[in-house]
Design goal:
Blueprint: E1 3-10, H1 11-21, H2 23-31, H3 33-42, E2 50-59, E3 64-66, E4 74-76, H4 81-86, E5 90-93, H5 105-117, E6 125-129, H6 136-144, E7 148-152, H7 159-162, E8 167-169, H8 171-179, H9 187-196, H10 201-218, E9 223-224, H11 225-235, H12 237-241, H13 243-246, H14 250-255, E10 262-264, E11 268-271, H15 285-288, H16 291-300, H17 310-323, H18 328-341, H19 348-360, H20 373-390, H21 397-407
Parallel strand pairs: 1-2, 1-6, 2-5, 6-7, 7-8
Antiparallel strand pairs: 3-4, 9-11, 10-11
Helix pairs in contact: 1-2, 17-18, 17-20, 18-19, 19-20, 20-21
């Protein structure tokens, strides 16, 4: 049975964030919405297919993204309206209503979502494509009404925002979503048909292994074992019915798959080569790092990189920008491998984190003139401090200087 779902897309928020990170991905998101919407409908994030009963996209028709060096230097959002309409979205114009350039998309989305709570159709899930933490009160209301919540956003989200959601489709997951073949999404239908028939243990075991390997390969961060076990139980009922194939439990069944570089804790599993350990696993962080660095690591998931290695990371990012045509996916792989060759072991996910934060800080790796290592470092620190301030974490000038010293950059604290 399909889940009855509503999806609300804050186009300006998602597109501009993607545009600042990977312009090709932003164009795929806006030009081919039918593809990623179909893949999302048939994905197993919820353990069952989605049926989009309501699909609305909130767009400022006069909004645009800057395109320096190209004709008119502007890419207007109205260009993507036909693609969104063809995908089945109801496009709702949200023009600017204030001098500050603010439109009313957020309040329109809140009003529409609250209206659907009282609708005669009971919506099982609300999917919100926006990184605006102003939606936190709405999510709290949806949670109180016992509705599933999925957030889609390529940007950095506040913990208060994500803590309420059942699922978060972050930048890495969005890249997988945008790269997926919509025609292959129907494979999930065959899988679900098998669920409704008699349980065949060998088939269920193979299905279980396929699901876990797929989730592990797609994961951008550590996987929550409880959520994964819940999905596996619904997708492969024979697995749980057999006592996880006669093992000591779900974790033991996963461990038997011999996944590469896998690490387990009480609540999580992760790839030691690609993922940062969950915060709870970083028990010695306070003793290794200066207090301000440890604080940022806990609150913002700042990658755990040795002090001597930070300048090397910024240098490698600069070298990539100077010698390659920018592609975010390829950039993280190349930089991770180059750092490993130079004796710096760090996860690809950590490299991607640093790269994206530096981009948000203004050090664009796809600029005509590639940024120098110091430019990347200062942009990274500036964006980190902005994120900290956004969640109410203000560092003193001395603390800022301590972080800058740890990163190996010159910084004049205000």
């Amino acid at each position: 049975m399909s889940a009855r779902c509503a999806i609300f897309v804050d186009f300006d928020n998602v597109f501009t964030t993607l545009w600042g990170l990977d312009r090709n991905a932003a164009l795929r998101f806006a030009s081919e919405p039918a593809d990623w919407l179909q893949v999302l409908a048939n994905s197993c994030l919820t353990g069952e297919p989605r049926r989009w009963l309501v699909a609305r996209c909130y767009l400022n028709p006069a909004g645009y993204a800057p395109t320096p060096g190209e004709a008119n230097d502007r890419l207007y959002f109205s260009r993507f309206r036909p693609s969104l309409v063809r995908a089945g979205f109801e496009v709702i114009d949200c023009p600017v209503v204030s001098r500050g350039g603010k439109n009313a998309a957020d309040i329109r989305m809140v009003v529409d979502a609250l209206d659907l709570l009282g609708h005669r159709t009971h919506f099982d899930e609300f999917v919100l494509a926006s990184g605006d933490s102003d939606f936190t009160p709405l999510l709290q209301r949806l949670r109180a009404e016992d509705r599933r919540i999925t957030i889609i956003s390529p940007g950095y989200l506040s913990s208060a925002y994500t803590a309420i959601a059942d699922r978060v489709v972050d930048f890495d997951a969005m890249m997988d979503l945008l790269a997926a073949d919509a025609n292959a999404a129907s494979d999930g239908d065959e899988q679900r048909e098998a669920i409704n028939g008699p349980v065949n243990l060998p088939d269920s075991k193979a299905q279980f292994a396929e699901l876990i390997r797929k989730r592990y390969a797609q994961a951008g961060t550590a996987l929550n074992l409880a959520a994964l076990a819940f999905e596996a139980a619904r997708t492969c009922p024979g697995a749980k019915q057999s006592g996880w194939f006669g093992t000591a439990g779900f974790s033991a069944a996963v461990s038997a798959l011999d996944l590469p570089n896998v690490r387990f804790s009480q609540h999580h599993m992760w790839d030691s080569e690609r993922h940062e350990p969950p915060i709870a696993e970083r028990s010695n962080i306070g003793s290794e790092f200066p207090p301000p660095v440890a604080l940022l690591s806990r609150e913002l998931d700042l990658p755990r990189i040795e002090q001597a290695d930070w300048p090397k990371v910024f240098d490698v990012l600069s070298r990539y920008a100077k010698n390659h045509e920018f592609n975010l996916t390829e950039a993280t792989r190349w930089c991770r491998d180059t750092l490993a060759d130079e004796g710096v072991q760090t996860a690809r996910n950590a490299v991607g984190y640093i790269m994206r934060v530096a981009q948000f800080g203004g050090a664009r790796l796809d600029a005509d003139v590639a940024p120098e290592p110091d430019d990347i470092g200062r942009a990274f620190l500036g964006a980190v401090l902005d994120r900290a301030s956004a969640i109410g974490l203000t560092l003193s000038p001395d603390a800022e200087d301590a972080v800058a010293q740890w990163l190996g950059i010159e910084w004049l604290a205000e």
